[in-house]
Design a protein that fits this description.
- The chain is 22% helix and 27% strand.
- Helix 10 runs antiparallel to helix 16.
- The two termini are 37 Å apart.
- The strands form 14 sheets. Strands 7, 12, 15, 16, 17, 21, 22 and 23 form an eight-stranded mixed beta sheet that branches.
- It is α+β, with helices and mostly antiparallel strands.
- The N terminus is likely disordered.
- The relative contact order is 0.07.
């Protein structure tokens, strides 16, 4: 699932944080987190073992399987202490399964580890990181267990619980001879494609007959000729536990690729198998099965994630929902405010709730914390001493067992009437003695939990229906016979039938855990990590640089440092729902050249502290191979270094004057010195380094030719070093003068790149402008205009802007008398020369665009094309850079009218009035500002709707580069904050086309629900609400997404009250969106697209194919370069079969 991230040695990590291959001694492991409120334990993911975790939890919550395994003692299985002895036959796999189940039952930790178990399988670290199919694992694990239990009393464990038989029969229609063949099964594999559900699939398999006739006859052995016959199958023997595997993955022979079947596939909570059985004489309960586990797969056929819904048959967990739990927390908080200081009363009340008024001593402290929200050490230790000592000092109230492992109340303990207690003591009894909300329900109420690796939380039975379809859907079903009843002593008793040696081992482990947690209780347990998302970066100029904003490219994650790297990977995988393929986490560092990746985080069982991940660490999330099609070298040896290179160049019209030119370059630290000649296009020459001890001095030393093969790091170069490069054709006198040469150092001279963004030029031009630190902005602007050969008389019509880190125009340089030093502009920075005067402080220069809705006529229609210059009138579909038009987007036509300079204090109405006065707008018939609708222009499309005319522009937070688009209206409108403006289009029956868009105002006062929108659209078109279908159009994808309440995706991290809103995913409905409407009374076509949509999609696919080919070419070129340089690449490993190694016990 995540790729091969881990090495086999989990006891050590890299010694150098930015080095490779070095090891260090780890710190002491911090204790794992305790169980959460469900009181159930998850299983930690080793990187790709979610499929294993889901199956193990299913077996663990199969009590009959668990207890049958527990019944096998050391006399049959051997002992783990003897596993290394040469002659000892130790059955390691069942022993490790026993220990794991005991840990899941009794060990107070949030998640158990499967490392010992997978080691017993003979798996390497690569196997633990490679995801496999859980259906395949189920068969292989059962086979390994059968082999391991040969010669023991549990040799028939799998056969007894899971084995069933199927009989296939062929009946000759001539002689009625029956030919049958019996097949054994441990799980039933059923089809999903073109099948509505499990019962339908079983009916096709075990009720329907296949007839052999016509050209497909059957050869009867009795008749000795081809005859007509009927073939059928029936279930002959039913196992106590029925496992059903769903064939979700298929192969498309047209596209020659695998795919996952995500259609709706129902399965019942209780199923009657009598219609599918050969024998029907048994009592009905023999055929009734109850669902108790559903293994779910999320993702596609080449990767994804497994988790499991499990029914807690023995009620081992606390089936309590967070909203119910919060009510209890409020009562406990009020109880704490009463400041009850009588620990005897509190402990007695806790024991009264336990079975037989008895509890293990190590669980008493946990019960106290769960009930009161505060530990014994914090509340009572200072006054009453340790808990164990306190119990020993009150033998008349509390009875300790002989080994002091359990505590109970004497049988004759006094029972107080509530009226005899003080008010606060009575409240303790009422609060603590009250059962949790989940336990007060009907005892037969099924308790279901969602176990997702380490996390366990309760779910309701009806939540199972959400896994009928979609990318996240049921993959394996587990049923148990309804007649299998559990004994009363097993209910809510995790110690039931656990062997005594495992009970002692778990009790000792719990005591050790409590001691370790007490030591770490005061430590700060969380810190912040900066996640850099690989798909949002590009490799440029020797380092990684973000392609988008800081918010999109870097995510801040607060994480518990006591958790493991495996937990961190799992959390990031859950956080990045869009991620596909392998995921690798690497430590990165910001350097002057950009972001550089140093080493990959290996070792799933290591905590973040042991991996030496510090607070504020930069973590790069990628696939471990390439970024944007470019393979990335990692490690400190290839760290990018930013140098200032000085070269002697000729300048002037006759090329008679020589001057020193400084430029910035980035080289890898392991690059040879001689590589500078190749990069700088210098055939040969000399390289000089400044060996002066202080920055103010200059002492240039030439590097001998023999040292040109050394790396930059070996020469002692670092970020900011200055290198002088001299060609052989230069004057020797300029190479090493007798006196200290007087070059313009990096501290005194800056070389600025000035780029022309003039909209009159088809191509951007860039020049270098030399300037000292005390050069003012005005001089830079004038020099740039001269170098770019722009009209000098229009010099005041240009201004300079900084380029932000997203390579877009940033804030303007308003203070033209300020120096570069004052503005903190350094060498190598890029400034943008943009047409237009700078607006005065407190004012905006707003580009105005005109949006003509398609199909409208009358007074909105402009009379022909306005007469205007290219810089004044342009058709476009996005925001200009101070008036610069861009490419035309799909289905949006915007007409550029000009720019308006206006104060931020002005109102939207005043902006409309000034826009109406533009020369280009005079060609349009505009009667009133009230008949204009204003939008912002974002990402080359209509953005926010500006509703209130009297609101000041600064309240809209338009910014310096915002554009405004005006749209004509037939009449005045007044939209409230709850109104949403949508464009509706009615589908034309029988044609792949829609009517022209019509504005629809939707009042969302009652919520942004799909039902409310459907009702509004139905009323608008005077159609029955049940006879329409609506969909939102995504123009950037040329796709329609149907809007209905059942297919709306809901983020689990969002609150329940926001689940039905159309403002969230996947619709993200907003003003201006297009809503398609289909009348199903006259139109039964399922396809919502049009011919133009097909054309647009085709163009997108061609563009995507072109980009993919370009990336492959770049990747190939990069691979060739790395291969020639001897740098090892990391190939993607092929799929490997799953196996479990078992010794011979026959």
């Amino acid at each position: 699932m995540f790729g091969n991230l881990f090495e086999e040695d989990y006891s050590s990590v890299s010694e150098n944080q930015y080095g490779k291959g070095k090891k260090l001694k780890t710190k002491a492991l911090e204790p794992p987190a305790p169980r959460e409120f469900t009181n159930l334990s998850g299983i930690r993911n080793q990187g790709g073992t979610c499929y294993l975790n889901s199956l193990l939890q299913t077996l663990h919550f199969t009590p009959e399987f668990r207890e049958a395994l527990f019944s096998l003692g050391p006399e049959e299985l051997g002992s783990l202490e003897d596993k290394d002895k040469p002659d000892a036959k130790v059955r390691i796999i069942p022993l490790q399964l026993q220990r794991l189940f005991a840990q899941l039952l009794l060990l107070d930790q949030e998640a158990a580890s499967t490392i010992d178990l997978t080691d017993s399988f003979g798996w390497s670290s690569d196997e633990e990181m490679r995801q496999h199919d859980v259906q395949e694992l189920n068969r292989i694990l059962f086979s390994a267990l059968e082999t391991s239990l040969v010669g023991t009393s549990g040799h028939d464990l799998i056969d007894r619980l899971y084995h069933g038989t199927i009989v296939n029969q062929i009946v000759c229609k001539e002689c009625m001879n029956v030919s049958e063949k019996q097949e054994d099964f441990l799980d039933l594999t059923v089809a999903v494609k073109n099948v509505s559900g499990l019962e339908d699939a079983l009916r096709n398999m075990y009720v329907e007959e296949e007839v052999f006739d016509c050209d497909n006859l059957y050869h009867c052995g009795t008749c000795d000729r081809l005859v007509e016959a009927a073939k059928s199958a029936k279930l002959r023997k039913l196992p106590p536990f029925l496992t059903v595997s769903l064939l979700r993955f298929n192969f498309d022979f047209v596209k020659c690729e695998r795919y996952k079947e995500t259609s709706c596939y129902t399965f019942p909570l209780q199923i009657n198998l009598k219609p599918f059985c050969e024998q029907s004489e048994l009592e009905d309960l023999e055929y009734i099965y109850d669902l108790f586990s559903v293994i779910i797969h999320r993702g596609g056929c080449y990767g994804g994630h497994y988790h499991v819904y499990i029914k807690d048959v023995d009620h081992l967990g606390n089936w309590q929902f967070q909203e119910e739990k919060s009510k209890t927390d409020v009562n406990l908080k009020a109880l704490q405010n009463e400041e009850s200081d009588d620990p005897v009363m509190v402990l007695q009340t806790i024991l009264l709730q336990e079975e037989n008024n008895q509890i293990p001593l190590d669980q008493l402290g946990q019960k106290l914390l769960k009930k009161t929200g505060i530990t014994w050490n914090k509340k009572y230790r200072k006054q009453h001493g340790p808990l164990r000592k306190f119990l020993q000092l009150h033998p008349q109230v509390f009875l300790l067992s002989s080994d002091e492992s359990t505590v109970s109340l004497p049988k004759s303990h006094p029972v107080w009437a509530e009226s005899d207690l003080p008010r606060n003591h009575a409240q303790i009894v009422r609060t603590l003695a009250s059962e949790p909300p989940g336990l007060t329900e009907n005892a037969t109420c099924p308790h279901w939990f969602d176990i997702n690796d380490s996390r366990v939380h309760p779910i309701r039975e009806q939540d199972i229906t959400q896994q009928f379809q979609g990318k996240e859907s049921a993959y394996m079903l587990f049923y148990r016979k309804s007649k299998l009843q559990r004994p009363s002593e097993a209910r809510a008793n995790p110690r039931h039938r656990v062997p005594s040696h495992l009970l002692k081992e778990m009790d000792a482990a719990n005591t050790q855990l409590q001691m370790r947690r007490a030591e770490c209780d005061s430590a700060n347990s969380s810190f912040e990590l900066h996640l850099h998302l690989g798909p949002h970066y590009r490799f440029f100029n020797g380092a990684l640089h973000p392609m988008f904003s800081q918010t999109e490219s870097v995510w801040n994650l607060t994480f518990d440092k006591r958790k493991t790297l495996g937990d961190l990977r799992q959390s990031i995988f859950q956080l990045l729902e869009f991620w596909e393929g392998d995921m690798v986490l690497s430590v990165a560092k910001r350097v002057p050249a950009g972001l550089h990746v140093y080493h990959t985080l290996d070792g799933d069982e290591l905590t973040l502290c042991e991996a030496e991940i510090a607070d504020g660490e930069d973590i790069f999330v990628w696939n471990g191979v390439e970024v944007g099609g470019v393979q990335i070298q990692t490690g400190s040896e290839c760290e990018p270094l930013l140098f200032h290179v000085l070269r002697l160049e000729t300048s002037g019209e006759g090329a008679t004057r020589e001057q020193w030119v400084e430029s910035s370059h980035v080289f890898a630290a392991n690059a040879e010195m001689g590589a500078l000649f190749r990069v700088l296009a210098v055939p040969a020459g000399a390289i000089l380094l400044n060996s002066a001890e202080t920055a103010d001095e200059e002492h240039w030393t030439a590097i001998p030719k023999d040292d040109l093969t050394k790396t930059l790091r070996e020469q002692g170069l670092r970020d900011g070093s200055v290198i002088l490069v001299q060609g052989l054709d230069s004057d020797d006198s300029s190479l090493l003068p007798k006196q200290a040469i007087r070059t313009s150092s990096a501290k005194e001279t800056s070389w600025l790149h000035v780029r022309n963004l003039c909209q009159l030029d088809p191509e951007e031009k860039q020049v270098q402008i030399p300037a000292a630190l005390n050069t003012v902005v005005f001089d830079i602007r004038i020099k740039a205009i001269e170098e770019l050969k722009l009209m000098k008389e229009l010099g005041d019509m240009w201004h300079l802007r900084k380029m932000d880190w997203c390579y877009e125009p940033g804030e303007p340089l308003c203070e033209e008398d300020a120096t570069l030093k004052e503005l903190m502009i350094s060498s190598g920075d890029t400034l943008l020369l943009i047409e237009g005067k700078l607006p005065p402080p407190g004012s905006l220069k707003v580009p105005i665009w005109w949006y003509q809705p398609p199909g409208l006529s009358g007074h909105w229609e402009h009379r022909g094309h306005p007469t205007c210059t290219t810089s004044q009138c342009t058709t476009w579909g996005g925001t200009p850079s101070q008036g610069a038009p861009g490419p035309k987007p799909t289905e949006v036509s915007l007409l550029y009218l000009g720019s308006v300079e206006i104060s931020e204090e002005a109102s939207l109405m005043e902006l409309k009035a000034q826009a109406m006065a533009l020369p280009s707008a005079t060609e349009l018939t505009l009667r009133s500002t009230a008949l204009l609708r204003a939008w912002t222009v974002e990402n080359k499309r209509l953005g926010r709707l500006l509703r209130t005319d009297r609101q000041q522009l600064k309240e809209y937070k338009l910014g310096q580069r915002a554009g405004i688009c005006l749209e004509p209206l037939p009449k005045e409108e007044s939209l409230s904050p709850q109104d949403v403006l949508l464009r509706t289009q009615l589908r034309i029956p029988g044609e792949r086309a829609y009517t022209l868009p019509v504005d629809l105002v939707w009042d969302t006062t009652r919520g942004w629900t799909a039902g409310s929108l459907r009702q509004r659209v139905a009323n608008f078109y005077s159609l029955p609400v049940e006879k329409i279908e609506i969909a939102k159009y995504f123009p950037e994808k040329f796709e329609w997404l149907p809007i209905s309440s059942w297919n709306q995706q809901v983020s689990k991290r969002k609150k329940k009250k926001n689940q039905d809103t159309l403002q969230g995913g996947p619709y993200y409905l907003k003003d201006g969106d297009t809503i398609g409407v289909k009348n199903v009374l006259v139109d039964d076509e399922e396809d919502l697209s049009t011919i133009s949509h097909d054309t647009g999609k085709g163009n997108q696919e061609q563009l995507a194919v072109g980009k993919k080919k370009s990336r492959e070419v770049l990747r190939t070129q990069r691979s060739d370069m790395l291969s020639s340089a001897g740098t090892p690449t990391r190939p993607r490993g092929p799929e490997a079969s799953l196996s479990i190694h078992v010794g011979s016990f026959r």
